Amino acid sequence: MKVVIIEDEKLTAEDLQESIMHAAPDAKVIAILKSVKEATTYFKENNTPDLIFSDIQLGDGLSFEIFKSLSLKAPVIFCTAYDEYALNAFKANGVDYIVKPYTQKNITEAIAKFKELKKSFSPAVQYETILELFENKKPNRQASVLVHYQDKILPVRTEDIALFYLENEITRIVTFDQKNYSVNQALGELEKNAGTDFYRANRQYLVNRKAVKDVSQYFSRKLKINLTIPFAENITIGKLKVTEFLEWLSGK
Fold first, then answer.
1. How far is it, in rounded angstroms, from Cα 213 to Cα 223?
2. Which one of 78, 162, 165, 191 is at 20 to 30 Å from 9 when CA atoms are compared?
3. Distance between CA 8 and CA 45 in Å, rounded?
4. Which long-range contacts (CB under 8 A, 24 or more apart) does 164-171 make?
5. Which has the closest alpha carbon to 181: 193, 168, 171?
6. pTM score, two decimals?
7. Residues 16 and 96 in one domain
8. Do strands 198-200 and 57-58 pair parallel, antiparallel, or not at all (unpaired)?
9. What is the DSSP code (8-state) at residue 204?
């Protein structure tokens, strides 16, 4: 069974690949694609796989755009953090989905369901309808984030978080009262769910607007974000994102 993964977070894609291989030892992940553009190009140039696992919100758009523009005859299992409203679109169109953060159990169940139904699978899915629903309905902001502290898991309100950041490929948070925790979610996943009060400064940092004290000029026409809380590392905005960042900072 040949499988393609469409996921823009490297660690999430690797975890998904491992779970698929555990659930179906006969599976072979033949490609991991990171964007709408990359996936569209890949499927135009390569044979259709037996099964596709796809995130919904990619860095350059919704993955439905891929399937809307191409005539793929492979079933797709979507990995999503969207709410029940949006998931109803799947039920109405015969598409399977897994809600993030997923587990080995629901990956196994999804593959078992695929094997059971693949003989009767029909590729006639109305992706245009689903795409419209998702474009018109943004996911609700995640109210709290679960963090690890000693031997406990604690909820921390999203509005109390000043900063998400990566440290040695581990996602961590700093709260406004300067507490630091690790989080078992990829930074890209948190970016999608944290809401518009947060901005992805670069690959490593996701910043709350309320945590921005001011910004200053930096090397090579970059900006440096100065926070309202102590933080040792420099957080910079690349010159190509300066306009977008300033619009976000002003609340546009």
1. 13
2. 162
3. 20
4. 164/190, 164/191, 164/194, 164/198, 164/205, 164/206, 164/207, 165/204, 165/205, 165/206, 165/233, 166/203, 166/204, 166/205, 169/11
5. 171
6. 0.53
7. yes
8. unpaired
9. S
- Dig out the tokens for 149 from the structure: 């502290």
- On whether both 179 and 106 belong to a single domain, the answer is no
What pLDDT score was predicted for residue 93? 45
d(CA 180, CA 162): 10
**Residue 174: phi, psi to the nearest 5?**
-125, 130
Q: Which residues of 87-98 are buried (b: 16+ CB within 10 A; e: fewer)?
A: eebbeeeebebb
Q: What does the block give as tokens for 191?
A: 């970016």
Q: What is the mean pLDDT of the chain?
A: 83
Quote the CA–CA distance of 177 and 236 in Å, as a whole number.
23
Residue 155 CA to residue 147 CA, distance in Å, equals: 6
Task: Read off φ and ψ for residue 172, nearest 5 degrees.
Answer: -130, 160
CATH number of the domain enclosing 67:
3.40.50.2300
* 94-103, 137-146, 167-176: the lowest-pLDDT one: 94-103
Domain closes at, from 136, 171, 202: 136
CA atoms within 13 A on the CB side of 197: 15
Cβ proximity of 173 and 156 under 8 Å: yes
Max intra-chain CA distance, the chain: 60
